[in-house]
């Protein structure tokens, strides 16, 4: 009963979450969870850390070759 009460309280605050996954279809919910994980790996802060050298190389002006 306490666990259900906590779940209901969490659901009442759904607007505070970035993602909502409804677990009424396991395979669909799993796919959505995988998508959330993938999306979080692609946010600017993560990508900037991961590819710092490449980004710097791409945005640094290169001398013109004649």
Count every helix, treating DSSP H or I runs of 4 or more residues as helices: 4
Rg estimate, integer Å: 21 Å
How does the major sheet shape up?
none
Shape type: elongated
Secondary-structure element series: HHHH
How many strand segments?
0
Overall average residue pLDDT: 92
Distance between the termini: 76 Å
Residues in β-strands, percent = under 5%
Query: Helices and strands: which structural class?
Result: mainly alpha
The percent of residues in helical segments reads: 55-70%
Note poorly predicted spans: none
Write structural notes for this entry.
- With 66 residues, the protein is mainly α.
- The chain has a domain at 21-59.
- Helices cover 64% and strands 0% of the residues.
- It has helices spanning 2-12, 26-41, 44-50, 52-59.
Overview features:
66 residues, mainly alpha, elongated, kinase, transferase, kinase activity
Question: What's the topology here?
Answer:
Elements: H1 2-12, H2 26-41, H3 44-50, H4 52-59
Describe the structure concisely for a colleague.
The chain is mainly alpha-helical and 66 residues long.
